[in-house]
Amino acid sequence: MPFIHKDFLLSCPTASQLFHQFAENEPILDFHSHLPVADIAANRQFKNLFEIWLEGDHYKWRAMRSNGVPERFCTGDASPYEKFQAWAATVPYAIRNPLYHWTHLELKRYFGIDTLLDADSAKAIWDATAEQLATPELRVHGIFKKFRVAAVCTTDDPADDLAGHRAIAASGVSTKVYPTFRPDKALAVNSPKNWNAWIDRLEKASNRSITKLPDLYEALKLRHDAFHEMGCRISDHGLEQCFAGDCTSPEVIFDKARSGKQVTPEEHSQFASTLMLFFGILDFERGWTQQLHVGAMRNNNSRLFESLGPDTGFDSIGDWPQARSLSAFLNRLDRQNTLPKTIIYNLNPADNYMIGSMIGNFQDGSVPGKIQFGSGWWFLDQKEGIQLQLNALSSLGLLSRFVGMLTDSRSFMSFPRHEYFRRILCNLFGNDIENGEIPKSFKNAGPIIRDICFSNAKNYLKLAV
Prior knowledge:
This protein has helices at residues 13-23, 37-41, 49-54, 58-66, 80-90, 98-111, 122-133, 140-146, 163-171, 192-206, 213-229, 250-258, 265-286, 302-308, 323-335, 352-358, 383-396, 416-434, 442-461, and strands at 28-30, 149-153, 176-178, 234-239, 289-294, 296-297, 316-317, 341-346, 371-373. With 465 residues, the protein is α/β, with parallel strands linked by helices. Helix 17 crosses helix 18 (416-434). The longest helix has 22 residues, at 265-286.
């Protein structure tokens, strides 16, 4: 029997039946990804496994470094095949890491390859996949079709001109591709040089001068409107903690940063709090969903960050207190009846039950599951992390209203992560049914699984798919 078989991760007959009947064939709505817009617009054809699989994958780089692989074979000047060889030699040492499962699930689903990847099989797999990658079916648009991807949301800065999205819309691709409004750089007055350079970009994108705080508000609203016109219905914020402090003089802080002066940490927090309230109101007025990704501790290795830059594999789970600031932020919006639909993604499993209980404080009956505990994210999008999130949500809220999985990926090889999640979900339900904890009938469990896989997200996000 091959490693990836029809009942992979399904430990009982009921789990298998649930997956194959209710989950396996549901479309994919990948509402949070970091897929390169330019690659989608160009319908990129990948030459080899390095380009489609290793080119920007810091998950793999972290594993390779841990296996003693020099940086030259991760982000350095080694050839594409040498980098792939180094990864292949690392794979056998990744047993019990989710990368081992993902690697072989992806080889199976994209290329029909059952062979385990290692140093000995690397050359044959490299050659066989190169032949398939040369076909139209494994260009970007073909991949979308192959995996029944109904819609993808990319992650985009307000200062982006959205030209790539206009090109995608004109390309005729059947999958809907929408931008996501990610204004993190607007908050970063603690780095005035970089912030002012970003403000200059925003001026160009919004076609207006930004010399005072009201100008910034207007420019951001104009970009929010432009994103809406491109079909965007989701914002996203990457935060260590929510910003929810009081700020009596945001204009003073703006002027200080705009003149290039260094602001204090307290001023940074106050200014960011003001803008986060502003963004929440914009989202509410437009009927959007805001996403909050909290708890990532980024760029820990300063030496390699300075050498390689961000998103190269030197981030980890942070342990900041989250409850008070998260509650204050949601409460500020709720008190003035401007709290939009909100998905909260947690990176520290110690906070699962806090967030699972927090979302119940702000459900208001207007939308099923208005405040969501988002899927296991980043370091938690593996079997145990997914199970922990599902169990916390089940215990404290309504799993049946959950909007489900996403890839959060830069790789076009990541769509099987939806299958991986669905198998784990069905195994959880299947074992509960066989243990007598859920009625032995698919009348309730089956539709709930189907909804979590696709329909809940479609109905919640109001995206045209």
